[in-house]
Amino acid sequence: MSETVYRNATLFDGLGGAPVESDVLIRNGLIAAIGKTLPVSDDAVEIECRGLWLMPGMLDIHTHLDLEVELTPGLPEVVRHGTTTVVIGNCSIGVSYGNQRRNGEDPIVDCFARVENIPRVVLEKVAEHCTWDSSGAYLDHLRALPLGVNVAPLLPHSMVRIEVMGLNGSISRKPTSAELRQMERLVETAMEEGYVGLSTDALPFHFLANAPHKKNKIPTQYAGFSELKRLLSVVRSFGRVWQATPPKDDIVAAVKGFLLTSRRLYRRALKTSVLAALDLRTNQSAYRLCLMLARILNSKIVGGHFHFQALSGPFRIWSDGAINPVADELPELRALNELELDDREGRLRILNDPKWEKAFCRMWMQGRKGLSLARLLRWLRLDHVVLSRSLAAMNVVECPLPHWSGKTLQEPYRRLKLWRTSRGRYGAENAAEEELFRKVPASAKNDAQFLLFLLREWDTALRWETVIANNDPDILRYLLFHPMTLPGFNDSGAHLANIAFYDGNLRTLKISQEEGLARVAESIMRLTSVPAEFFGLDVGVVRVGARADLCVVDPEALRVWDPEQTCELQERSELGCRAMVNRPVGVVREVMVSGRRAWVEGSYADDLGKTSYGSVLRAR
């Protein structure tokens, strides 16, 4: 019999109540007792927590860790942030049916490489691991892994279509009646096996990565409304979750689709979780429309069970040249993104194409000059494009001129203009910059052409970052605690070199800390018991008899932590690529999964990733 006791902790139970000072006793993986001065056995491990917060392990409800778990099943980047349960299989893509390599098709690489900006070397390595061929066998495989945290899988709709129709068929024709019935059976089987729901996707810039499909979107986007309705009726009958993304530029289609949540129309509400309510820098109406739609869908008239996911911090993306998570939104950048990351010559051919250059400059400069509706919309922050298209919003991280790092691209562009007007007497900060300025063609007369010059000259050696959403802390706080949202759009395990959101839950705690312990209790509830109940999982609370998934946070370390200063690009040898990480120091003091201490005072347990800590969770 193993015992661990946390002494004198400021205990948050995950249900929203005020914290109390208490001990918590863990025995054989479960919470055995809660109270003051609990008696324990002589060999119990005692952990002093005076002044520290003790809470349930947190949930991350939007991840793509189904890939990472194959290569590093301990999921160390998740553990160190106090998260003990993750939902996988989001956005309609996953590995529930293995690698599905048939007839020369390679769906894992095709579906993930561009949608989630994951290097092919990682995806090919993962695909070699995926030797199962059914949703049940996948669960058996996950159970056999030495999981560091609990995993709860969604069934990915794109992979269901591929399993039934083949990849080529799933993007080129409608399913037959027999194929629809087969899809229905696959969804029903997965729900019986305990999958927490079905994921679909409708974002218009999610494209396949392999020839000859590079101009095709992922399979779920070729499904008609009747197919979605039919498959989701199965999900509804089991009381499971629909995870979705909206057709960003088609409000009518979004409303029609999301009415599937309605109890009035379909007799039973369908639990629906949608990506994402964001305060876009280019469009201030986006989050307002999301919240208005959610209010309507959850009204008594419609009777839905619907929320938007909310990102817990600024939506900061890192870009390598023209390659970033939203590049496919714009046709001009999409042409560059269709090529392999190492195909510099191919990108250079496109960059040097006069027809393409004209189209790029027209796109980049749209709404910048003259009197036009586009300029009015841009001025009002009602632009339909997510990327800001402004050098002033592009902050250099790395480039061949080190003194540019930490500054915006607007600054060297201004110096170039001064250097030109002064005929080389002023502007350039050093000889290397002057040499670069001499290479800029005289025909480059605006910032779009200056950017194109840099892309031709440096390609992916120009690494920059920008914030595309959630830049206003007051609106961010409003979104995180709005009754129509849940924090949790983190995309952990995806966009490896482009975002660093593993710390999303801790960011929510930090924001709530500014408003006192009552707000902290609310935020913990929204990160634990509320999403656990939504997905039907028996986790997320501290009470006698519950699983001992726990997290200890140092509130003082949390208070002084600056999340924007702990992001860095590191080589992750277990993945075989460079990846963004965000590793706050001292904030999470202890993480327990199933009664076992996985993270203690800045160090992982020696056997993390070698023996099982977490479990595969079935929906209730």
Automatic annotation (TrEMBL):
Cited Gene3D superfamilies: Metal-dependent hydrolases, Urease, subunit C, domain 1
Organism field: Acetobacter sicerae
Signal peptide per UniProt: none
Protein's UniProt name: Amidohydrolase family protein
Top-rank lineage group of the source organism: Bacteria
